[in-house]
From TrEMBL:
Pfam family, one: Abhydrolase_6
GO molecular function: hydrolase activity
Keyword tRNA-binding carried by entry: no
Species annotation: Aquicoccus porphyridii
Name this polypeptide is given: Alpha/beta hydrolase
Alphabetized UniProt keyword annotations: Hydrolase
Residues covered by the AB hydrolase-1 domain: 23-264
Superkingdom as given in the UniProt entry: Bacteria
Record has Transmembrane as a keyword: no
InterPro entries attached to this UniProt entry: AB_hydrolase_1, AB_hydrolase_fold, AB_hydrolase_sf
Length: 272
């Protein structure tokens, strides 16, 4: 475990494990580097770098106005510089994938390739509406075990998932405290998301098109409410060479250790 200081004076936590091809993992909106715990054992032949974005996990909290993909992309680039790396591959989950597309548009020459986990240049409104119902709020449940009893009903689109996996996921998303479960990120992230949602949706297709020339993979949960089938179809039209995997029995987001996910990631890494 380590940390570095950003250009605006924030201490961000990261892990840097293994040797070989450097792959920087960027987690989802309310998640952190532990989100890649499930896939990490299957990627032992690479240098796996995982960043906790500002305000998430073990990274310092900041002014919520800085919780934006553009500033988070700057943070990721500063981490790459801090590690003395010329180029890295990016594995971006959800929000992390949007950050990866920003980097493709602003620092294309620093990237070896990009893999997107259940995200594209358009966000399905169904998923965004669902996010707004819970972001920044602690659950009413007192313990992980309490939440586990209703977790299959809370998350949508998942089937054939063992209870042990649900329990492990909950432990990464919420801390147990005497007063009950607590989210592992700055509650003021809600302010940033609500502010962004109140603005007209930006056109992210130019960011996707900026991935041109980079090996690209996209993994989609077959039941995702974030990456719609029609969005994926347009992504494939624009990038017919793109590696695509759709994971059955998964909503938003696949865990990345499914057979379909691993096959796509391994094919992608061979192209880097």
């Amino acid at each position: 475990m380590a940390s570095f200081t950003t250009s605006d004076g924030l201490a961000l936590h990261f892990t840097d494990e293994g040797q070989g091809l450097p792959v920087l993992c960027l987690a989802g909106l309310t998640r952190d580097g532990r989100d890649f715990d499930f896939v990490a054992p299957h990627l032992s032949d690479i240098r796996l770098i995982r960043l906790d974005a500002r305000g998430r996990g073990r990274s310092a909290r900041a002014d919520p106005s800085t919780y934006t993909p553009a500033i988070e992309a700057r943070d990721a680039l500063e981490l790459i510089d801090h590690l003395g790396l010329d180029r890295v591959a990016l594995l971006g989950t959800s929000r992390g994938g949007i950050v990866a597309m920003v980097l493709a548009a602003t620092a294309h020459d620093r990237l070896l390739g990009v893999a997107l986990n259940d995200v594209g240049p358009e966000v399905d409104p169904r998923g965004l509406d669902a996010i707004l119902t819970y972001i920044g709020r602690n659950p009413a449940h007192k313990t992980h075990s309490d939440l586990l009893m209703v977790w299959p009903d809370i998350i949508r689109g998942f089937a054939n998932v063992p209870e042990s996996r649900f329990r492990a996921e909950i432990a990464r998303l919420f801390d147990e405290a005497p007063e009950g479960l607590r989210i592992t990120y700055d509650p003021r992230l809600r302010d940033a998301v609500l502010s962004a949602a109140a603005q007209p949706s930006p056109d992210l297709w130019p960011l996707f098109d900026a991935l041109a020339g980079l090996p690209l993979a996209v993994i989609r949960g077959a039941n995702s409410d974030i990456l719609a089938p029609q969005t994926l179809a347009e992504m494939r039209r624009r990038r017919p060479d793109m590696i695509v995997a759709e994971v059955p029995d998964r909503g938003h987001i696949p865990y990345l250790d499914e057979a379909e996910s691993l096959a796509a990631l391994r094919q992608w890494m061979k192209r880097l």
